[in-house]
Amino acid sequence: MARIHLLSSQLTATAIVSFEDSKAAATYYVSVAVITLSIVVAVLSVVADEWLASMLNL
């Protein structure tokens, strides 16, 4: 019985560690996505501004 308990504790610890790793990876990827999106929006706003000005002859 003690052997089974040890095994379940090891599995629980492994699950917690892998969950923390995946949380860190998710945080990293979300940060990269937010930064990339903000750069794309900034570039598109400049391009769209010039494009609209030329379309409307402003």
Feature tags:
58 residues, single chain
What does it look like?
Helix content is 93%, strand content 0%. With 58 residues, it is mostly helical. The model has no long low-confidence stretch (mean pLDDT 73).
Q: How is this structure best summarized?
A:
Helix content is about 95%, strand content about 0%. With about 60 residues, the protein is mostly helical. The relative contact order is 0.06.
Largest sheet: none
Overall outline: rod-shaped
Helical residues, percent: over 70%
Integer-rounded radius of gyration? 25 Å
Tell me the structural class.
mainly alpha
Give the percentage of residues in beta strands: under 5%
Low-confidence stretches: none
DSSP E strands, number: 0
- Nearest-integer average pLDDT: 73
Q: N-to-C SSE series?
A: H
How far apart the termini lie comes to 81 Å
Q: In DSSP terms, counting alpha (H) and pi (I) runs of 4 or more, how many helices?
A: 1
